[in-house]
From TrEMBL:
It comes from Cyanomargarita calcarea GSE-NOS-MK-12-04C. NADP(+) binds at S223, R243, T300, S366, R367, G405, L406, E444. Keywords: Antenna complex, FAD, Flavoprotein, Membrane, NADP, Oxidoreductase, Phycobilisome, Thylakoid. Residues 17-75 form the CpcD-like domain. This is Ferredoxin--NADP reductase. Coiled coil: none annotated. It catalyses: 2 reduced [2Fe-2S]-[ferredoxin] + NADP(+) + H(+) = 2 oxidized [2Fe-2S]-[ferredoxin] + NADPH. Its EC number is 1.18.1.2. GO terms for cellular component: phycobilisome; plasma membrane-derived thylakoid membrane. Belongs to the ferredoxin--NADP reductase type 1 family.
Amino acid sequence: MYNQGAVESAANIESGSRIFVYEVVGLRQNEETEKTNYPIRKSGSVFIRVPYNRMNQEMRRIARLGGKIVSIETGSALQQVNGTSSSFDTSSEASTPTTSGEIAETEGNGIATPVDANGEVKGFGKSPTEQQPKKKDKKGNTMTQAKAKHADVPVNIYRPNAPFIGKCISNQELVGEGGIGTVRHLKFDLTGGDLRYIEGQSIGIIPPGLDKNGKPEKLRLYSIASTRHGDDVDDKTVSLCVRQLEYKHPETNETVYGVCSTHLCHLEPGTEVKITGPVGKEMLLPEDTNAKVIMMGTGTGIAPMRAYLWRMFKDAERAANPEYQFGGFAWLIFGIPTSPNILYKEELEEMQQKYPDNFRLTYAISREQKNPEGGRMYIQDRVAEHADELWKMIKEENTHTYICGLRGMEDGIDAALAAAAAKEDIVWATYQKELKKAGRWHVETY
């Protein structure tokens, strides 16, 4: 579960420091809550400070909790980057793996973006003034959003101990009459700050109040649903797609509502919000404007895909990005329970009608459509239905695939593509590993 060579290297550094910082991804809930039927986010980076004499013990604990150590730094090395030591410690509440949806509570889209080890550590803890100078548009105006390439992606401009204080501009319901649950589209004002981001990244939201232990609530991560220029294409906003988390307690059977998602779904315009980040390099779009992009999402997993599609097809976005004029092909397979739960329906269908040769839209509406066996139509059934066509696309070197939504959806998708690959005597699991190495297979599930 961890890189032994990196461990030995870090342990042997003669820096005089006896504190090491682990960057860990994939932490899950504990053994008991793993048995429950509500999802807890698995992905996302956590930085854990570990004394030298506890390194092996901490590695075993991380492995038990499904985590993977992607980098190890000495405490002094991180100080050189941050100017201060990391705020995460094995003895602190922040480093404790989450249970019952604490720091990684799966709310809204609930997707924590897996981050590149080097990029994340490089950007971790830098204050806004330490970031690169703001870029300016053609008129000389400061651009608050990023126009970065993948090698220069902004990360952790704002940290939990020094968040950006934004304001809610609008809070709109996305689920139509007769739909299931509530999903809100929230737009936040970034004026006065230096929060820059690009499509496919996430931001953290710190809800107000105290947790069950009497300590300040911890941040929850949400995928960004807007392009780097924001919904108003003025470089002053960021948007989220948030579902109110609601589930039955496994022991009491009482209805439990997510702390952060409930806070956000009931947020009034003008209310201040603590924002951290951005984070994430796993879900970024390729720079190739002629790429083929396959998107498979469920529910609020649509968030990053909305950002992609806006960048590709929205008129105002295309005007704002003369260097990025998408001429490739995008295919969205979107799984939802009912027609009223089709999030951003008008936007999606308008883009499909305007760019029929470049954008294909396929729904899997589980409670209204039937699969070939007569059961509910889930996203994996749609993938199976189009498996040969998808497989043909995936084999092309300029195709990128993005999967975002509920954990477990990958299994059905893999099974469908494995069947298509097997027709050519290709082992899908092996082929998929090569796609990941090439940076063409992107997955975030929660």
